[in-house]
Specification:
- By secondary structure, the protein is an alpha/beta fold.
- It has one domain (about 1-110, about 140-155, about 175-190): Formyl transferase, N-terminal domain (Rossmann fold), CATH 3.40.50.170.
- It is about 35% helix and about 25% strand.
- The chain has helices at about 15-25, 40-50, 70-80, 95-100, 125-130, 165-190; strands at about 1-10, 30-35, 55, 85-90, 105-110, 135-140, 150-160.
- A seven-stranded mixed sheet has the order 3-2-1-4-5-6-7, with helices on both faces.
- Helix 1 (about 15-25) crosses helix 6.
- It binds 5-O-phosphono-beta-D-ribofuranosylamine (GRF).
- 5-O-phosphono-beta-D-ribofuranosylamine (GRF) binds next to helix 1, strand 5 and helix 6.
Length: about 190
């Protein structure tokens, strides 16, 4: 059974979707650690509520930067948990070589657009202001670029004429919650 480490900074809805896919028997995996750089984040609250092992990544003194030291602390936490695969789910720091080199081809991310379209922040707003007909979500491998790694799986979401950033983001997130467990199963089947 594949051992997952999940890392996020925010609400943790994708972590929760993965957890539910596991508890419902849809995904044969185990969440062995949930890590966050934000001690009061929803993702850690959800991990606690489900009794999942969790820890805070100490990124001090930096508010945004993911220092090499903090990355090495993260590597240690992930190795201690003996993870097979790492899922970034709303992690707001840029992962660099210390972490990438420790887990080559083992780190996934979910992004709220059909990459390579709309990389970076607030991708759903980019889709709306661009007048796109469709957007969606992408699960991809993490490399040293921003949202540039190899694509594993995508799900399309059609834009509606009256969409706002909020309505589109909500539909994209619903698609993410289906896409991430599917992508993990796909990757696991090749490990
Ligand atoms: C998701 O929309 C994901 O695409 C982006 O960050 C968000 C995380 O949401 N990378 P959540 O914390 O899983 O609810």
């Amino acid at each position: 059974m594949i051992r997952l480490g999940i890392i996020g900074s925010g609400t943790g809805s994708n972590m929760w979707a993965i957890h539910q896919a596991i508890t419902s028997g849809q995904l044969d995996a185990q969440i062995v650690t949930v890590l966050s750089d934000q001690p009061r984040s929803g993702i850690l609250e959800k991990a606690r509520s489900a009794d999942l092992p969790h820890a805070v990544i100490d990124c001090a003194p930096f508010k945004q930067k993911f220092s090499p030291e903090a990355q090495l602390r993260t590597v240690q936490l992930l190795q201690d948990a003996d993870v097979d695969l790492i899922c970034l789910a709303g992690f707001m720091r840029i992962v660099g070589h210390p972490l990438l080199d420790a887990f080559p081809k083992r780190i996934l991310n979910i992004h709220p657009s059909l990459l390579p379209a709309y990389p970076g922040l607030a991708a759903w707003e980019q889709a709306i202001s661009d007048g796109a007909e469709k957007s969606g979500c992408t699960v991809h491998y993490v490399d040293s670029g921003i949202d540039t790694g190899g694509i594993i799986l995508q799900k399309e979401v059609a834009l509606r004429p009256n969409d706002t950033a909020e309505t589109l983001h909500a539909r994209i997130q619903a698609a993410e919650h289906i896409a991430y467990p599917e992508a993990i199963a796909l990757v696991a089947s090749h490990l």
